[in-house]
Protein backbone atom coordinates (compact mmCIF):
# COMPACT_ATOMS: atom_id res chain seq x y z
CA UNK A 1 0.00 0.00 0.00
CA UNK A 2 1.26 3.46 -0.92
CA UNK A 3 1.02 5.99 1.92
CA UNK A 4 0.46 9.63 1.00
CA UNK A 5 0.19 12.65 3.27
CA UNK A 6 -2.08 15.12 1.51
CA UNK A 7 -2.01 18.81 2.50
CA UNK A 8 -5.10 20.70 1.25
CA UNK A 9 -7.00 23.92 1.91
CA UNK A 10 -10.46 23.01 0.61
CA UNK A 11 -12.51 19.97 -0.29
CA UNK A 12 -11.41 18.07 -3.37
CA UNK A 13 -13.11 18.85 -6.68
CA UNK A 14 -14.03 15.89 -8.89
CA UNK A 15 -10.95 16.60 -11.04
CA UNK A 16 -8.72 16.70 -7.93
CA UNK A 17 -10.17 13.42 -6.66
CA UNK A 18 -9.59 11.73 -10.01
CA UNK A 19 -6.00 12.97 -10.18
CA UNK A 20 -5.10 12.10 -6.59
CA UNK A 21 -6.61 8.61 -6.64
CA UNK A 22 -4.97 7.64 -9.95
CA UNK A 23 -1.43 8.92 -9.30
CA UNK A 24 -0.13 5.41 -8.67
CA UNK A 25 -2.29 3.41 -11.04
CA UNK A 26 -4.02 0.42 -9.50
CA UNK A 27 -1.89 0.33 -6.35
CA UNK A 28 -3.92 0.67 -3.15
CA UNK A 29 -3.48 4.01 -1.43
CA UNK A 30 -3.75 5.28 2.12
CA UNK A 31 -4.25 9.01 2.53
CA UNK A 32 -3.52 11.01 5.66
CA UNK A 33 -5.10 14.39 5.01
CA UNK A 34 -4.16 17.66 6.67
CA UNK A 35 -6.45 20.57 5.91
CA UNK A 36 -5.45 24.14 6.63
CA UNK A 37 -8.39 26.53 6.50
CA UNK A 38 -7.98 29.21 3.83
CA UNK A 39 -9.39 31.78 6.23
CA UNK A 40 -6.34 31.44 8.49
CA UNK A 41 -3.92 32.52 5.76
CA UNK A 42 -2.86 36.03 4.79
CA UNK A 43 -5.80 37.71 3.06
CA UNK A 44 -3.69 40.21 1.11
CA UNK A 45 -1.41 37.53 -0.35
CA UNK A 46 -4.43 35.42 -1.32
CA UNK A 47 -6.01 38.42 -3.07
CA UNK A 48 -2.79 39.22 -4.97
CA UNK A 49 -2.52 35.57 -6.04
CA UNK A 50 -6.16 35.57 -7.16
CA UNK A 51 -5.59 38.70 -9.29
CA UNK A 52 -2.33 37.32 -10.72
CA UNK A 53 -4.11 34.15 -11.86
CA UNK A 54 -7.15 36.00 -13.20
CA UNK A 55 -9.59 35.02 -10.44
CA UNK A 56 -10.87 38.57 -10.07
CA UNK A 57 -14.22 37.58 -8.59
CA UNK A 58 -12.49 35.50 -5.93
CA UNK A 59 -10.09 38.38 -5.13
CA UNK A 60 -13.00 40.73 -4.52
CA UNK A 61 -14.55 38.25 -2.09
CA UNK A 62 -11.43 37.29 -0.10
CA UNK A 63 -12.76 39.20 2.90
CA UNK A 64 -15.87 36.97 2.83
CA UNK A 65 -13.85 33.86 3.74
CA UNK A 66 -14.77 32.39 7.14
CA UNK A 67 -12.34 33.30 9.92
CA UNK A 68 -11.41 31.98 13.33
CA UNK A 69 -13.72 29.30 14.68
CA UNK A 70 -15.98 29.65 11.61
CA UNK A 71 -13.03 28.76 9.37
CA UNK A 72 -12.26 25.74 11.53
CA UNK A 73 -15.82 24.40 11.52
CA UNK A 74 -16.18 24.97 7.77
CA UNK A 75 -12.89 23.17 7.19
CA UNK A 76 -13.92 20.28 9.43
CA UNK A 77 -17.02 19.73 7.29
CA UNK A 78 -15.00 20.01 4.08
CA UNK A 79 -12.41 17.59 5.44
CA UNK A 80 -15.09 15.03 6.29
CA UNK A 81 -16.49 15.34 2.76
CA UNK A 82 -13.00 14.86 1.30
CA UNK A 83 -12.40 11.76 3.42
CA UNK A 84 -15.72 10.32 2.25
CA UNK A 85 -14.76 11.03 -1.39
CA UNK A 86 -11.41 9.25 -0.99
CA UNK A 87 -13.00 6.25 0.71
CA UNK A 88 -15.68 6.01 -1.97
CA UNK A 89 -12.88 5.90 -4.54
CA UNK A 90 -11.44 2.85 -2.76
CA UNK A 91 -8.68 4.48 -0.70
CA UNK A 92 -8.07 4.39 3.01
CA UNK A 93 -8.38 7.92 4.39
CA UNK A 94 -8.11 9.75 7.69
CA UNK A 95 -7.40 13.36 8.46
CA UNK A 96 -7.54 16.42 10.64
CA UNK A 97 -7.76 20.19 10.41
CA UNK A 98 -4.60 22.09 11.32
CA UNK A 99 -4.67 25.79 12.00
CA UNK A 100 -1.30 26.23 13.62
CA UNK A 101 2.00 25.55 11.87
CA UNK A 102 0.83 23.13 9.16
CA UNK A 103 4.39 22.39 8.03
CA UNK A 104 5.35 21.21 11.52
CA UNK A 105 2.23 19.03 11.67
CA UNK A 106 3.06 17.73 8.17
CA UNK A 107 6.60 16.77 9.20
CA UNK A 108 5.34 15.02 12.33
CA UNK A 109 2.69 13.11 10.39
CA UNK A 110 5.13 11.99 7.67
CA UNK A 111 7.34 10.48 10.38
CA UNK A 112 4.42 9.01 12.31
CA UNK A 113 2.83 7.17 9.36
CA UNK A 114 6.09 6.53 7.49
CA UNK A 115 4.70 8.20 4.40
CA UNK A 116 6.02 7.42 0.94
CA UNK A 117 5.26 10.90 -0.35
CA UNK A 118 3.63 14.24 0.35
CA UNK A 119 1.17 15.83 -2.04
CA UNK A 120 0.39 19.51 -1.59
CA UNK A 121 -2.87 20.36 -3.34
CA UNK A 122 -3.68 24.06 -3.08
CA UNK A 123 -4.58 27.09 -5.10
CA UNK A 124 -1.61 28.51 -7.02
CA UNK A 125 0.42 30.79 -4.79
CA UNK A 126 2.29 33.19 -7.05
CA UNK A 127 3.94 35.40 -4.43
CA UNK A 128 4.90 32.54 -2.10
CA UNK A 129 6.03 30.39 -5.04
CA UNK A 130 8.22 33.16 -6.42
CA UNK A 131 10.14 33.31 -3.16
CA UNK A 132 9.90 29.55 -2.46
CA UNK A 133 7.78 30.18 0.62
CA UNK A 134 4.82 28.10 -0.55
CA UNK A 135 3.98 24.89 1.33
CA UNK A 136 5.55 22.52 -1.20
CA UNK A 137 8.85 24.41 -1.38
CA UNK A 138 9.12 24.54 2.39
CA UNK A 139 8.07 20.91 2.83
CA UNK A 140 10.79 19.71 0.44
CA UNK A 141 13.38 20.91 2.93
CA UNK A 142 11.73 19.29 5.96
CA UNK A 143 10.01 15.98 5.33
CA UNK A 144 12.61 13.65 3.80
CA UNK A 145 10.23 12.12 1.24
CA UNK A 146 9.27 13.27 -2.26
CA UNK A 147 6.90 16.26 -2.34
CA UNK A 148 4.56 16.77 -5.28
CA UNK A 149 2.85 20.12 -5.74
CA UNK A 150 -0.49 20.11 -7.56
CA UNK A 151 -2.81 23.01 -8.19
CA UNK A 152 -6.38 22.56 -7.04
CA UNK A 153 -8.97 22.53 -9.79
CA UNK A 154 -12.51 23.82 -9.75
CA UNK A 155 -15.50 21.82 -10.97
CATH architecture: 3-Layer(aba) Sandwich
- Spans of at least 5 consecutive residues with low confidence: none
- Strand content bin: 15-25%
Task: Count every beta strand, where a strand is a DSSP E run of 2 or more residues.
Answer: 5
| Helix/strand/pairing category | alpha/beta
Q: What's the CATH H-level homologous superfamily?
A: HUPs
Portion of residues within helices: 40-55%
Q: Short summary of the structure?
A:
The chain has helices at 14-21, 43-52, 56-60, 68-88, 102-113, 126-130, 135-140, and strands at 2-8, 29-35, 92-97, 117-122, 147-151. By secondary structure, it is of the alpha/beta class.
Provide tags for this entry.
five-stranded parallel beta sheet, globular, alpha/beta, Rossmann fold
Structure description:
The protein has one domain (2-151): Rossmann fold, CATH 3.40.50. It has helices at 14-21, 43-52, 56-60, 68-88, 102-113, 126-130, 135-140; strands at 2-8, 29-35, 92-97, 117-122, 147-151. The chain is globular. The model has no long low-confidence stretch (mean pLDDT 80). The two termini are 29 Å apart. Helix content is 43%, strand content 20%. The protein contains 7 helices and 5 strands, in the order βαβαααβαβααβ. Helix 1 (14-21) links the parallel strand 1 and strand 2 (29-35). The protein has a 5-stranded parallel sheet, sandwiched between helices. It is an alpha/beta fold.
